[in-house]
């Protein structure tokens, strides 16, 4: 297998990974960054970002991530396509296998693999994924314009996506499993004030119906135990995310939800020379700007680690 040695390897290309890359390249660490499954990360599947400082009029997520990438490349980051498929942190330098075909030996590894959408786990959901079932309203809502859709979830993501879908679709049914929503008050108000969103409280998905494409959703009211079928062409899942930490679990300490544990106030993991930043280690804030801030911390921690070992 091909082997390459680098000072600093960055895994993941969201705000955390690219910010780490900007700092690491400006510090002369010649970082190599692998973009992972979803180049640009979660912001590439959102539309307007209105809360990232410095953009008074807002910015489109994909455009912002393209700017992050350009800025990292301008200082010499080697940005590559590829997915980290396994790691070996048992000896130094650390080894990361890319696409099962190449090993990168790295003195420092910065993990910024982010988080991915959660699914309900129904057989019909997996079978009809891409044929009406989606976890990204902004990506796929366009296909269902003028039609009825169902969305599951009651957090800020679900609220945001429901209002987005309401602009495109004739009717949006929002399934909320409790009698209240988790979303922030302002987002809840937006949902409740949108005429073509109908919230179904205490309601869960029983089955998604359709042979080759979504035709209807059978829902169940948890209070009355009644089921009913809602004709719909699109079924959107917006029930949160899980951290992309599976390949690290044999070496790194994770919390009960799979988030990588870092030493508070730092990006350091329990393995020397391995740092984590962004959503893969942040259950609490999960914002682009906090991810970017933690990416900066990881690059500075990596730089100091290399300097202390005279590897800089
Ligand atoms: P959350 O974890 O906040 O919410 C997940 C929602 O899905 C909850 O309402 C939960 O219900 C529901 N849910 C979970 N599992 C199931 C299931 N099996 N069946 C039905 N419903 C289920 O995730 P979000 O992605 O919404 O938000 C993540 C973070 O990102 C939050 O901190 C949020 O504030 C933030 N965010 C901010 C935005 C903004 O400021 N513009 C936009 C989007 C997200 P229950 O409440 O019953 O647990």
Automatic annotation (TrEMBL):
Origin: domain of life: Bacteria
Keyword presence, Transport: no
Enzyme class at the top of the EC tree: oxidoreductase
UniProt signal peptide: none
Listed GO biological process terms: removal of superoxide radicals
UniProt cofactor(s): FAD
A cellular component term, taken from the record's GO annotations: cytoplasm
Subunit structure: Homodimer.
EC number(s) given by UniProt: 1.8.1.9
Claim: Signal is one of the keywords in the record: no
Family matches, as NCBIfam families: TRX_reduct
Gene Ontology molecular-function annotations: thioredoxin-disulfide reductase (NADPH) activity
Record key words, sorted: FAD, Flavoprotein, Oxidoreductase, Redox-active center
Chain ranges of the FAD/NAD(P)-binding domain: 7-295
Name of the molecule in the record: Thioredoxin reductase
Family listed: Belongs to the class-II pyridine nucleotide-disulfide oxidoreductase family.
Catalyses which reaction(s): [thioredoxin]-dithiol + NADP(+) = [thioredoxin]-disulfide + NADPH + H(+)
